[in-house]
Design goal:
- The chain is mostly helical.
- The protein has one domain.
- About 90% of the residues lie in helices and about 0% in strands.
- It contains two helices and no strands.
- The protein has helices at about 1-15, 20-30.
- The protein starts with a helix and ends with a helix.
């Protein structure tokens, strides 16, 4: 469930910066 919540946060940035969002999601996956 934690992963889903994190994804939602990334989605928020997606609207602001498409590139930044993609990078953020990749970082989160690397950490996990």
């Amino acid at each position: 469930m934690d992963h889903y919540k994190r994804t939602g946060y990334c989605f928020s940035l997606y609207f602001d910066s498409n590139q930044f969002s993609l990078q953020a999601i990749r970082n989160e996956r690397d950490i996990e």
